[in-house]
Design a protein that fits this description.
- The protein is built from 13 helices and two strands, in the order H-H-H-H-H-H-H-H-H-H-E-E-H-H-H.
- With 307 residues, the protein is an all-alpha fold.
- A two-stranded antiparallel sheet has the order 1-2.
- A hairpin with a 4-residue loop joins strand 1 and strand 2.
- The chain binds Phenylacetyl coenzyme A.
- The site of Phenylacetyl coenzyme A (FAQ) has 29 residues, from helix 2, helix 6 and helix 9.
Length: 307
């Protein structure tokens, strides 16, 4: 009976809520995806966070600070959504630190110049929006609702990145070179954010059937390429792909072969910055332990429970 209700809810395009019956596989998949997403937001604070103290003006510093804080907020909504499924946030953090749960490959690349901050906004947040707008219609209620707010904020992030790059492109030749260099380094990893090609994506078929995912990895990657090419033109940068060209028959841009061995390597922990990212997260967790203990002791005291 409960399985029929679940299937009927999915078929009617309605939301599954935390107290509803759901197959164990659905619960497991949702926890996996939401936790990976939450971890990505929190680890994703690091590449840009590294530039807060070095932002070139007070205005840029204030904008960047606000953006990085937004990512922390996204992590919190997402961990809360995972908790509605019975996951424990401390446990999820431990799994991340011990390398037992993934986070997005994109945050394992270094931010070498301030242009990287702009390119992360334009391309990384742009890819995130492409992937996440359909997730606003994802079948699990708390995730879909969190995604609505997250997408609104990501749109602001993308615009700030694009505006930053526009400003640099109007600057000196050295600034323009910095932007082009950042685009060259971030373009291919941004395409990898969408995950492995459909033929090698073990989770897509089931996640589409459960309406967790609304489009395949390759569909969303294509949408992102189509969206980015005219934006690159308006900005005056070249995307580093000699095979990129409009295909009038398909009405999409064709693009070159992605180096999937690089994605595999980065996901398995061997990207340029994996060790630093996890070490930093572990340090923050250890240094924050006393705050969590103090907050728990305070809460217990207020409830009259001896600590
Ligand atoms: N990196 O079968 P599939 C952001 C894993 S945006 C690492 O295709 P699925 C905003 C995948 O988990 C970034 N791992 O899997 C921001 C699976 O692992 P398993 C985060 C990847 O789930 C911007 C295995 O490979 N966004 O943070 C990646 O159907 C700027 C097989 O793959 C989200 O998480 C990858 N790129 O599709 C923050 C969005 N790709 O089964 C700061 C929500 C795949 O071994 C600054 N997630 N894997 O555990 C999704 O939409 C999906 O989970 C996909 C993967 C599309 C990422």
């Amino acid at each position: 009976m409960s399985e029929q209700v679940f299937e009927a809810t999915i078929a009617k395009d309605q939301r599954i809520e935390p107290r509803d019956w759901m197959p164990e596989g659905y619960r497991k998949t949702m926890i996996r995806q939401i936790a990976q997403h939450a971890h990505s937001e929190i680890i994703g604070m690091q590449p840009e966070g590294a530039w807060i103290t070095r932002a070139p003006s007070l205005r840029r510093k204030a904008i960047l600070l606000a953006k990085v804080q937004d990512e922390a907020g996204h992590g919190l909504y997402l961990y809360s959504a995972a908790e509605t499924l019975g996951a424990d946030r401390g446990d999820l953090t431990r799994r991340l630190i011990e390398g037992r749960q993934k986070y997005s490959s994109i945050f394992n690349y270094p931010t070498l110049t301030f242009a990287d901050v702009g390119v992360i906004g334009w391309l990384v947040d742009g890819a995130a929006i492409c992937n996440q707008v359909p997730l606003c219609r994802s079948s699990f209620g708390p995730y879909a609702r969190a995604m609505i707010r997250i997408c609104k904020e990501e749109s602001f992030h993308q615009r700030q990145g694009y505006e930053l790059l526009m400003t640099m492109m109007r600057g000196t030749p050295a600034q323009r070179e910095m932007v082009q260099d950042a685009v060259n380094r971030w373009w291919w990893p941004s395409l990898m954010m969408f995950g492995p090609p459909d033929a090698e994506s073990p989770n897509t078929a089931q996640s589409m059937a459960w309406k967790i995912k609304r489009h395949t990895n390759d569909e969303l990657r294509q949408r992102f390429v189509d969206m980015s090419v005219p934006q690159a033109g308006a900005l005056g940068v070249t995307l580093p792909d000699g095979d990129l060209r409009w295909n009038a028959e398909r009405e999409h841009y064709d693009f070159g072969e992605i180096d999937w061995s690089e994605l595999k390597r980065v996901i398995s922990g061997d990207g340029p910055m994996n060790r630093e990212r996890i070490a930093h997260r572990r340090r923050a967790d250890e240094q924050g332990a006393w705050v969590r203990e103090a907050a728990a002791a305070h809460a217990a005291k207020r409830q009259g429970v001896p600590a």
